[in-house]
Amino acid sequence: MNDDADEPTYRLAELTWREVEAALEETRTLLLPVGSVEQHGHHLPLGVDVQMPEAVAERVAARTDCLLAPAIPYGVSPHHTFKPGTFTVESETFQHYVRDVCASAGEWGVENVLLLNGHYLAQDPELDVVVRTLRTEHDLRAFHVPLSDVWAETAEEGRTGEPAFHAAEFETSVLLALRPDLVSMDEAVPVEVPDESLPLTDYDAYGENRVGWALSADDMADLTHAGNLGDPRGATAEFGERLVETAVSNVATLVEALDA
Ligand SMILES: [Zn+2]
């Protein structure tokens, strides 16, 4: 439906209801970016986790015929409340809110919903439950799409090899690609997490040990003075662009299959 390159017609908040009605002739798929507003160390802004899925979703929508919903910016971030600027909502509140947003789209014709999750593993359990509820109780084909999964192949192949988790190499690289004006590399500091602090994981986003675990705000305050976990200093915009493009390509493949 993007006949006029200057006037994209996929951003729901910029459309009229009649334009949505027309768009539904071309697609039944909705992208919903889901993130969080939380501390990301000295060098990254609070909105990283929503800026990343918004940018990926924007590119996917521009390349396919699907619709793009306004993002859900607030997420489940109790472990980041030890620094100012962090918002968190209860797990159940979050699940119900995301579910209701998607279910209401199902009422006006959306059949497929992709939840693009930028909150880096932390709210995966909630979104897995939401997806199941949407499928079983609302007859929607819903998918949980964690960005860390859909760019994993590029992340593992292109990384420096330093342990990386929160606000480290991956997120910093992506923000350098998307919003370099918001990144202060001069302020970036490495935070090394001692192995003995968390015996059930090697503390890496793509570590060998995928045992589930959760951190409290007190745990995080003990682990990191700056707020990040890992070393962000090897981040580059070029790597970030490759992460974003891998995610876009994988998500676009799914959208095209759904709307075929
Ligand atoms: Zn993040």
Automatic annotation (TrEMBL):
Q: Which cofactor does it need?
A: Zn(2+)
Per UniProt, the keywords (alphabetical) are: Hydrolase, Metal-binding, Zinc
Concerning InterPro entries, the annotation shows:
Creatininase-like_sf, Creatininase/forma_Hydrolase
Q: This protein's superkingdom?
A: Archaea
Against Pfam families, the record matches this protein to: Creatininase (PF02633)
Against PANTHER family, the record matches this protein to: 2-AMINO-5-FORMYLAMINO-6-RIBOSYLAMINOPYRIMIDIN-4(3H)-ONE 5'-MONOPHOSPHATE DEFORMYLASE, 3-DEHYDRO-SCYLLO-INOSOSE HYDROLASE
Name it: Creatininase family protein
Give the organism, scientific name. Answer: Halospeciosus flavus
* Species lineage: Archaea, Methanobacteriati, Methanobacteriota, Stenosarchaea group, Halobacteria
